[in-house]
Amino acid sequence: MAFSELLDIVGGLGRFQALQTVALVAPILWVTSHSMIENFSATVPSHRCWVSLLDNNTAQVSVPKVLDPGTLLTISIPPGPNNEPHRCRRFRQPQWQLLNTNTTATNWSEAATEPCLDGWVYDHSTFTSTIVTKWDLVCDSQALKPMAQFIYLAGMLVGAAVYGPASDRFGRKLVLTWSYLQMAVLSTATAFAPTFPVYCLLRFLLACALVGVMMNTATLLIEWTSAQARVLVMTLNALGFSFGQVLVTAVAYGVRDWNLLQLLISAPSFLCFVYSWWLPESARWLLTTGRLERGLHELQRVAAINGKRTAGDTLTIDVLLSAMQEDLSMNQAPSSLGSLLHTPELRLRTCLSTLCW
Hints:
The chain is mainly alpha-helical. The protein has helices at residues 3-10, 15-36, 38-41, 52-55, 57-60, 69-76, 105-109, 131-135, 144-170, 172-190, 196-223, 230-254, 258-275, 283-288, 292-305, 309-313, 317-323, 325-332, 344-356; strands at 47-49, 89-91, 113-115, 120-122. The radius of gyration is 29 Å and the shape is elongated. The two termini are 34 Å apart. It holds the Pfam family Sugar_tr.
């Protein structure tokens, strides 16, 4: 008898698995939201250089009333692509000669221009605030925007290398609970990042935590569900990622300020951290690491929730030892990444999993 048979005794698909799936898949919605949020929080709005005639109230007093904002823009900002106001250059001095309809392109192209030394003016009609408008990630600094996403993805890579072995050593539930807390605190702190480097650092650490949530969610779902039902629960887990994309889009449609949007998708993580204490540890991990008494307690607890208390009471330490001999012997064998390539079937599965990821 192996652990799968113990799971059949206490119930491999019942009330407990339904509750666990809901509790574990719900946070996946917010994990996806954090991964997708920069589609909205890092939007680059239309922008132009700040110019005195248009944006300085004191200077506007001396401007003739007959000159409308469009005219002032023409003499202050050179045309860019598609004849729209240039986003990154301005005239050093107002080009009043451009008010003359006979002025040719050669005339204004020879006028001296300069970068946006006094900052930019952004279009806030779609988003009232983004990280781009907060830290001026445009023109010469436009490369910093994709760098933020690169740093975030690097955090996911590091998180996968750290939280996988950590869950094998300290337990799935403990690492998952810590990941929820880390996700809640860091995602909230991101909304208050004072500088762009701090923002990137917080996003890096947040990405590490999100991987911890994803990995241990999948592990707990698999290890507490019978083999026949694992496809179902993992499909529901995958749907959580899809619905998370819809969720963050809906929230971003109603909330156009990046700070508030960040806070709204961060708040549910604190609830996830609180109720994660109710979740049982993986009995399989407990038994294979020699924590037999606690493993027995978790199995009996699940049996009670599934309405199989009597069957759960028949389990004893001796029964567990007898059932887990095969799994315990496998756990004692040395393991490495090379084990994934040991047989043709494992090589195929490793390659397919890598491509899917």
